[in-house]
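This part of the workshop introduces the protein records we will be handling. To make this concrete, we reproduce a full record directly below.
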Amino acid sequence: MPDATIINLVDGVRESAFQLTGAAADYDPLLNLIGNARFVLIGEASHGTHEFYEQRAEITKRLICEKGFTAVAVEADWPDAYRVNRYVRNMSNDPTPAEALADFHRFPNWMWRNTDVLNFVNWLREHNDGLPENATKVGFYGLDLYSMYASIEVVLKYLEQVDPEAARCARDRYSCFEHFGEDAQNYAYATSFGLTPSCEQEVINQLWELQRRTAEYAQKNGYSDANELFYVEQNARLVKNAEAYYRSMFQGRVSSWNIRDRHMAETLDQLVAHLAQPGNPAKVVVWEHNSHLGDARATDMGLMGEVNVGQLVRERYGRDAVLIGFTTYTGTVTAASNWGATAELKQVRSALPGSYEALFHQTTLPQFLLLLQDEKPEIAGLGESLLERAIGVIYQPETERISHYFYARLPEQFDAVIHIDDTKGVQPLDRTAHWEMGEAPETFPFAV
């Protein structure tokens, strides 16, 4: 992009942006854009940035209080998040929000066990406790599928209470996984290379059987809670989809990615169908990474054959869905150097030239909201394909371009974007000395 074009585009963004000052009315333009939409998908450019969590929570609070949203669905495992759901709806024995978040103990536990999520869960509980007796309480739900073994245990425990014979049959079906020692990657390897038969038919049969007997279980004394029955059925559905996901792991990233995102979109569909009331369809806020919630068709992902939640929700619900992304230029982030490694407070390198982040940095605005669907000629240049950064739970700055950038057309990817130029990492609830020390600066030990 020529220098003159960049200068004009930077000026256009500066003129079109709504500065974020911390005032209560900062997000009024965004709420106006959302209007009566039933799905608001709010992304993040990393899984470890405080401002993304904080501002996402503030927007969600307004959607709950002003627009009647009654569910928050997040990029987390279904059973782990459902423990939080029970807490915020005052249906558990957990005494504190920190206890309610205790099932998030696997890597990357800081993604949900951090101070920003703790504060939001506390707010949800207080909000629900203050509602009239018969009002619909706001729920908290997970959309992801990594909890295959935990979900198996949920199904078995439920069936042992309501139908011991069905529990025995379910245990027999799920025993297909036993000799992998609850290691899903071992299962993935063995089935992908034909070393053992897959468990595909067993998990499909178990889901069918549970669905077939749903009405019967709903009538059993003491087990007629529709929410709990839905929770158990969704765990059985998760096991079916997780089995397919792990079986596809060694077949290529596109295959496994698509199974995962289709599962999350399917879970969202099941959730809104369950929560809907006559004449009052459910309204859900979704929290996931930008790479899941920005429309894949506007990115390199789509060119490779990948789909994602944002694309699938747009295709199904059209204008009833609003997609919001976050970007940052520099700062710190809580992330690991490798999968399963200890969380670190890592330095985020300044964004690469030719990226949306670098362009937004040139506006000199510390933080702003930009509505992308206004079709303003001043920002038409944003529709060109530019680099965009994505940091997940792993950050490897030494391979920044290859590991963390892809091309995107921002106005097609999102309906709005929030840029915060200098950000800092989330604070894990389980902080270690390693995290507290932070990452040594690149110039260490020379202060140049």
Summary: Confidence is low (pLDDT under 50) at residues 442-448. Residues 146-259 form one domain. The first helix runs from residue 3 to 16. Residues 44 and 212 are 39 Å apart (CA to CA).
